[in-house]
Amino acid sequence: MIRWEAHTCLPLHPDASFAPLEHYRTAGVHYVSINVGMDMNPLSQILPVIAAFRARLLAAPDRYLLPDTVADIERARHEGKLAVGFDLEGALPLLERPEMVALYRDLGVRQIHFAYNRNNSVAGGCHDAPQGLTALGRRMVEAMNAAGVIIDCSHTERRTTLDIMAHSDRPVVFSHANPLALVEHGRNITDEQIRACATTGGVVCISGVSSFLGAESPAASDIVRHLLHVAELVGTRHVGLGLDIGFGEPGLDDDPPPPFDPEYWWPAGAGYGRGIRQMRYAPVDTWKQLPEALRAAGMDDNDIDGILGGNMARVARQVWERPPA
C-alpha cells in the first residue's frame, strides 16, 4: 500500500539538499508533497525553486519520479523510487488569476491552499480577522476543481474552510492540521471543520509539529493521539499524515527578500515566540514507528494502510484524474 506524506518543507532555495527526500525513501514513504512557496514568497523566489527542483528530480530517474497519476506513484513504489509533488501555501503566487492554477499544475504543483495565516484577496488566514472566501476565492475553487489540483485548507480560518468545502465539487483536505479539541492553537481546527472535510470525502492529515501536537519532543504516540480523535469523529477513512517537517540547512538563506516581517506571518500573540524557529518536529523515522503504534491503539491493517497513504491516494484519484469536461 502507498505511504503518502502530505506535506513537508525543504529550504526554499534552488540548491536545497535532497537528503531529506532520501530519508523519506528509506523510511518506506512512496510519495512526498514538498512546499515550493508561501504567500510571503515572491515569484522571483518560487519559480527558480520549482525549476531547480524539477530539473534535479528529472535528472535522477533511478531515485525519483514526478507523478501525474496515482498509478505513477504505484509504479514508483514497485520500482523503489520516491514520487515527489509540489504544493503552494497560499493564493498570492496565483496573482489573482484563476488560470494560474492550471499552469502550476503543469509544473508539478498538486495541492494549493488559499491563505497562509493571514488574509488576502482570495481567503482568510487562521491568524487574522475572520473573512471567509471572497468572490475571487470561489473562482479559485472552481479553477482548482477544473485543473485537478487538491484544495488544501491548512492555515486558513474556520469560516473560509467551511466556505471552500461548501463550494468545491471535489474532496478537500487539510494536509497538516490537528484537532483544536486536543490543543488550543490558532493553527488547529475545530471538530466542525473536521466533520465538514469528511463530508466532502476529504482527509485530515495530522501534523508532527510540537506546538500543534502539544508535545515538546513529538513522538509517534503524540501523533496517534491526534489521529484517534479524528478517527473517532469521522472514521479512519478520513485520516492521514502530513508531518510538516521544516528542514533547515546551515549556510543556506531561504528567507524571502525584504520587506519580510516574520512577526506578521507568525505572530507572537498566536504562540509562535521567535517566529517558527522554536518549533520541533516529529522525525522522518516516525513513519517506521507508526504502524505498530496504530496497531497498539486498536487499528487493523486496513485502517493503518488507509491512514498512512490509502486515504490520500483515494482523494488524489478523485481530484488529479478527473476527466476533462
From TrEMBL:
PANTHER family named in the record: DIPEPTIDASE (PTHR10443:SF12), MICROSOMAL DIPEPTIDASE (PTHR10443)
Source organism of the structure: Hydrogenophaga pseudoflava (Pseudomonas carboxydoflava)
InterPro entries with a match to the protein in the record: Metal_Hydrolase (IPR032466), Pept_M19 (IPR008257)
Pfam families from the UniProt entry: Peptidase_M19 (PF01244)
A GO BP annotation: proteolysis
Name the record gives this protein: Membrane dipeptidase (Peptidase family M19)
One GO MF term attached to the UniProt entry: metallodipeptidase activity
PROSITE patterns per UniProt: RENAL_DIPEPTIDASE_2
